[in-house]
């Protein structure tokens, strides 16, 4: 049997009256693991992989909204294991540290440098971060003259402001941010004032309701098809704790003076935003009853418009608990509220016209409504949509919006130019939601002085930025779309062999871009009249990857659907060698075979690997076929009926193509994936003999445990029982004869991929005499963020491959003849 890292749980509040601090300490203390389950020490991969893992992260390059300054923000690459292990609460889908009301897993800021954006020779100013705590969340003020940073300590999440001119920092007085359920929400009123959510000063002691009886749930004949979620409320005591820690205070801050004052009364706020030029506030807050089957996002919500002093002007809606809503459905009544970004200070929202049920026949699914100041009259209808609303964006001209709807049966998206005064809209473009080659791009956004994000126009034309996908790879572009005749003018497109994307179009039409090549990290440049001036000179932190070769390979599966993968070759691969390989993939669903075959990625992208990427295995000598396409093509209502057949056809074509290329031994190929990719990998092991072994990380393998849909599947288990059973590799564990490595985060927070999925599959394989290894990573969620876990994952994958497909260096040999035998080395010991 394999050794198992002890699972970690949370102690709930003890019975009896305790001081608030004692209650917090006890309710967040972790339980010891099960008796006899001694944890194994963390392993480290090869020296070459360790060198990559320890490479520092590249700095983020953040131009200020006024395009005058640049912040170079250096962030911590990994979250220390001791931070992941900090006591925390998991309530209603939220995970937070109750001592400081912050998210548990923060991306820490280690260094901030400021300089002029457009002068490449400008001196840099270091922002001196006071020692102690964890700095995070750098945010520019709307005018770029100041910025904000947060610092988490043991007792508070503090808010600090700084001056761009000299980098000096000062703390905003009497502010303890409440980021328990609405992290880092800032509603700018103007360049120096904003409203944030803080911990109320008078919230009293932590509630300590004793658990005196069973927790009970009831249903009374109304269908409520819910997805499976982690971290749900379980009893009245959880409800009390959630309400206590999620309650926050609206606080007006002046970042120039460092002063603050509370406005309005505390509530369970999930959103606060300014309306127009700060004339009003739009807030959303939760109210009871809570649910034991849904996360807080779906709890009853009251939407209100308020004065700047927090006083409620009008209740706009009371959205009910999102229970009993059809799969792919919407709430009846008002939902999805938007504040106007301009001085008209209107408020917009969406209402369903089909009762929110896509099964109901209706000429129009949704409509957009508008309410103008002083918010006392009746709202007016702006637009009706034949399909389901997706998003609303505002143009910087103050009179138009971009309204997008989606036909989910076709997987089709349509965007309109919407006159905000209620006049007839005009279709701008439409395309498949998976379209890449003909995608028109997305609105090029900019920040207004009041802090709102709007779509940028140029002389009345709309700017669009996109990936510019093509059979030769992505070439980002910037287009100008005429709103008069819909003609398109291309203002910029990246050259072949590099990856250069537009960042900012200045008032004098100079263009700031971010440019990278295969071995040159992203740097900013200034384009002016054909001249290119580098603005930054970030150096390559991993020059050893220059010896890695990669190639985009395209081919077809047996029915003609186009496939592709990125073939990465290890640095020491010699001419004439065939190496063992790992195929890493993730299935995607398509309505159209032609769109399924569109290529993704660019040979000009800078080569860098995340800590848990399988590409690190190149340094141990393996060939990696990365991002191998696994399309599942068909009608969205039933395409999963042929999931097994299609991924099998994909996999066979991938292995055949790899053999044709002459560098991969087809009898020494492993399959792997993460999340839905893990689900795919285990299904391939259960239903084919194409691979010598598999690696499955954080997947779901028993679809009866996700009975109301998964990925794009909209039918329930009871509507498509045969499909759910067929797509559950757990039920075919007796057919998995090849070695399988299972890795899972102990604290997986993704819907459907509970650690139990891997645990039960491992138990099935063990009971049936299969070959498997199950690695449970303490404190890790759906993605693994600590350096210790990254090292363990790389060691596990490398050792597993050495055991089942062989050590590529120990067994490197000239291209094998057809009669050569594959390695017979056993997988690593599970003891």
In summary, what is this structure?
The protein is mainly β and 831 residues long. It contains ten helices and 45 strands. Residues 653-806 form the Peptidase S9 prolyl oligopeptidase catalytic domain.
Characterization of this structure:
This protein is mainly beta and 831 residues long. Among the domains are: 59-208 and 226-324, no CATH class; 543-804, Rossmann fold, CATH 3.40.50. 12% of the residues lie in helices and 35% in strands. An 8-stranded mixed beta sheet has the order 38-39-41-40-42-43-44-45, sandwiched between helices. Helix 6 (643-660) packs across helix 7. The chain starts with 19 loop residues before the first helix and ends in a 27-residue tail after the last helix. Mean pLDDT is 92; it is low at 1-37 and 813-831. Residues 199-231, 806-831 are annotated as: Disordered. This is Prolyl oligopeptidase. One of its GO terms (molecular function) is serine-type endopeptidase activity. Residues 219-231 have a biased composition (Basic and acidic residues).
Question: What descriptive keywords fit this protein?
Answer:
831 residues, mainly beta, Rossmann fold, 7-stranded antiparallel sheet, 10 helices, 45 strands, globular, disordered N terminus, disordered C terminus
- CATH topology call of one domain: Rossmann fold
Distance between the termini: 7 Å
Query: How is the largest sheet built, in terms of strand order?
Result: 38-39-41-40-42-43-44-45
Number of alpha- plus pi-helical segments: 10
What oligomeric state is this? single chain
* Average pLDDT taken over every residue: 92
Low-confidence stretches: 1-37, 813-831
Specify Rg, calculated over alpha carbons: 28 Å
GO biological process, one term: proteolysis
GO molecular function: serine-type endopeptidase activity
Protein name: Prolyl oligopeptidase
Keywords: Hydrolase
């Amino acid at each position: 049997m394999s050794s198992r890292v002890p699972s970690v749980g949370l102690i709930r509040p003890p019975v009896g009256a305790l001081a608030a601090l004692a209650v917090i300490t006890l309710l967040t203390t972790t339980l010891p693991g099960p008796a006899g389950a001694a944890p194994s020490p963390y392993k480290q991969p090869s020296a070459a992989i360790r060198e990559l893992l320890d490479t520092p992260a590249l700095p983020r390059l953040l131009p200020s909204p006024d395009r005058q300054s640049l912040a170079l923000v250096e962030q911590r690459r990994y979250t220390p294991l001791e931070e992941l292990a900090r006591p925390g609460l998991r309530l209603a889908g939220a995970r937070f540290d109750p001592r400081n009301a912050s998210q548990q897993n923060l991306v820490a800021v280690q260094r901030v440098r400021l300089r002029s954006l457009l002068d490449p020779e400008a001196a840099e100013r270091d922002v001196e971060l006071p020692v102690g705590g964890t700095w995070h969340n750098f945010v520019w003020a709307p005018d770029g003259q100041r910025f904000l940073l947060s610092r988490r300590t043991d007792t508070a999440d503090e808010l600090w402001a700084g001056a761009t001119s000299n980098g000096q920092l000062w703390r905003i007085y009497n502010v303890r941010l409440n980021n328990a359920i609405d992290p880092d929400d800032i509603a700018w009123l103007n360049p120096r004032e904003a409203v944030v959510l803080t911990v109320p000063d008078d919230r009293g002691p932590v509630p300590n309701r004793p658990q005196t009886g069973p927790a009970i749930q009831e249903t009374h004949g109304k269908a409520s098809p819910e997805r499976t979620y982690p971290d749900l409320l379980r009893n009245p005591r959880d409800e009390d704790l959630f309400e206590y820690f999620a309650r926050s205070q609206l606080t007006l801050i002046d970042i120039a003076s460092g002063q603050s004052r509370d406005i309005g009364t505390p509530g369970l706020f999930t959103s606060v935003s300014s309306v127009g030029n700060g004339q009003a506030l739009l807030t959303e807050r939760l109210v009871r009853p809570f649910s034991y089957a849904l996360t807080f996002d779906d709890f009853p919500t009251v939407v209100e418009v308020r004065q700047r002093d927090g006083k409620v002007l009008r209740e706009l809606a009371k959205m009910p608990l999102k229970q009993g809503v059809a799969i792919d459905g919407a709430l009846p009544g008002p939902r999805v509220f938007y504040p106007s970004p301009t001085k008209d200070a209107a408020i917009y929202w969406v209402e369903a016209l089909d009762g929110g049920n896509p099964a109901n026949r209706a000429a129009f699914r949704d409509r957009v409504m508008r309410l103008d100041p002083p918010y006392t009259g009746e709202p007016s209808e702006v637009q009706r949509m034949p399909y389901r609303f997706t998003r609303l964006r505002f143009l910087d001209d103050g009179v138009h919006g971009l309204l997008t709807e989606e036909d989910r049966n076709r997987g089709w998206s349509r965007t309109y130019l919407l006159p905000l005064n209620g006049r007839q809209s005009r279709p701008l473009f439409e395309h498949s939601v998976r379209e890449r080659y003909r995608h028109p791009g997305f609105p090029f956004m900019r920040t207004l002085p009041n802090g709102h994000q709007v779509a940028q126009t140029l002389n009345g034309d709309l700017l669009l930025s996109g990936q510019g996908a093509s059979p030769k790879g992505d070439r980002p572009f910037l287009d100008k779309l005429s709103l008069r005749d819909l003609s398109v003018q291309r203002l910029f497109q990246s050259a072949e062999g590099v990856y250069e994307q537009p960042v900012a179009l200045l008032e004098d039409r100079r263009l700031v871009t971010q440019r990278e090549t295969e071995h040159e990290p992203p740097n900013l440049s200034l384009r002016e009249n054909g001249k290119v001036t580098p603005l930054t000179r970030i150096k390559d932190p991993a020059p050893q990857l220059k010896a890695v070769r990669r190639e985009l390979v395209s081919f077809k599966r047996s029915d003609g659907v186009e496939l592709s993968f990125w073939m990465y070759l290890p640095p020491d691969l010699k001419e004439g060698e065939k190496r063992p390989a790992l195929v890493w993939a993730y299935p995607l669903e398509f309505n159209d075979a032609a769109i399924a075959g569109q290529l993704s990625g660019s040979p000009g992208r800078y080569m860098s690997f995340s800590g848990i990427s399988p590409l690190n295995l190149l340094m141990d000598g393996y060939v990696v076929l990365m991002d191998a396409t696994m399309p599942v093509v068909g009608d969205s209502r039933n395409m999963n009926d042929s999931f097994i057949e299609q991924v099998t056809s994909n996999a066979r074509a991938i292995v055949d193509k790899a053999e044709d290329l002459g560098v991969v031994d087809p009898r020494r190929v492993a399959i792997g994936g993460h999340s839905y990719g893990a689900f795919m990998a285990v299904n391939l092991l259960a239903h084919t003999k194409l691979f010598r072994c598999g690696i499955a990380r954080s997947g779901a393998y028993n679809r009866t445990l996700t009975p109301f849909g998964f990925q794009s599947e909209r039918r329930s288990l009871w509507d498509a029982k045969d499909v759910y059973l067929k797509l559950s590799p757990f039920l075919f564990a007796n057919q998995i004869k090849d070695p399988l490595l299972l890795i899972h985060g102990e604290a997986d927070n993704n819907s459907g991929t509970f650690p139990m999925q891997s645990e039960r599959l491992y138990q099935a394989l063990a009971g049936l005499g299969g070959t498997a290894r199950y690695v449970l990573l303490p404190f890790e969620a759906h993605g693994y963020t600590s350096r210790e876990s990254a090292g363990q994952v790389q060691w596990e994958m490398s050792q597993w491959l050495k055991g089942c497909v062989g050590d590529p260096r120990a067994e490197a040999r000239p291209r094998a003849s057809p009669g050569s035998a594959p390695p017979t080395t056993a997988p690593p010991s599970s003891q």
